[in-house]
Amino acid sequence: MVTSEDFGKFETAWCPGCGNFAILDAVKAALVACDLAPHQVLLVSGIGQSSKLPHYLRCNCFNVIHGRALPAATGAKLANSTLPVIAVGGDGDGYAEGGNHFLHALRRNIGITYLVHDNQVFALTKGQASPTSDTGFHTGTTPWGLPLPPFNPVAIAVEMNVSLVARGYAGEKEHLAGLIAEGIRTPGFALIDILQPCVTFNKVNTYRWYRERCYKLDQSHNAADRDAALAKAREWGDHIPIGILYRGNRPAYETLVPGLKAGPLVARTLDPRAIAPLLPRFEAGTVAAS
């Protein structure tokens, strides 16, 4: 039987009080709830305080460059389509440097659970405004206030009809663990955007700020209704819904790839002779044009 102790306990580089600690606990609880042992899951992360999370777990981990967690996770999922793959990043890593990869992962609906630690600031690089920072947010690089509107990742994900769109909050650890577990169990792309206070560089979106605004979605919300989900995804300010915003109805990308019909690539026997019919076309320069 899998327990949270199986994933180890490690010294971290996070600030005392950081929301990442609760997210780490929630990830462990979700993996236990899904009965996944450390060797049965892969975590892929980019660069940032959030992306250090897999370093503090005893598990399979692949750490890539800034903003590139999703393409690496996509490659892993296509190579071993039965492997639970979790990508981890922050709002800067995932929505700024990795914004293009985020959009195409949504378009594919690849079977990855994407955990985004959304603290509305670049924390690792000392407090610059991020794509999800609110208009008017004051930082060292926006001393007169951020003039731009915030990027809304959950609204974009709902519009793209991915398999699962949820918003969690680090201050509701048990609730968050349930969302992560649901994401792992869901075929197709599951976005879990996690509101996470940064106690050092974001003095606006604090634990108190979130406590006064976050509320849990109940059964009155129809997550299969895309219009209703989009309305909830756009809700921000005095009231912020957390929970499952949307459940899509598209098949997972890996189920549509003809090359995976015979099973995971990782389980196949490599036969170099299978590419022999293609070689004359490469030599003639016709492969790219066909």
Characteristic terms for this protein:
290 residues, alpha/beta, Rossmann fold, eight-stranded mixed sheet, 9 helices, 8 strands, 28% helix
In short:
The chain has 290 residues and is α/β, with parallel strands linked by helices. The chain has a single domain (4-284), classed as Rossmann fold (3-Layer(aba) Sandwich). It is 28% helix and 15% strand.
Explain what this protein looks like in three dimensions.
28% of the residues lie in helices and 15% in strands. With 290 residues, the chain is α/β, with parallel strands linked by helices. The chain has one domain (4-284): Thiamin diphosphate (ThDP)-binding fold, Pyr/PP domains (Rossmann fold), CATH 3.40.50. Strands 2-1-3-4-6-5-8-7 form an eight-stranded mixed sheet, sandwiched between helices. Helix 5 (153-159) packs antiparallel against helix 8 (226-233). It is globular, with a radius of gyration of 20 Å.
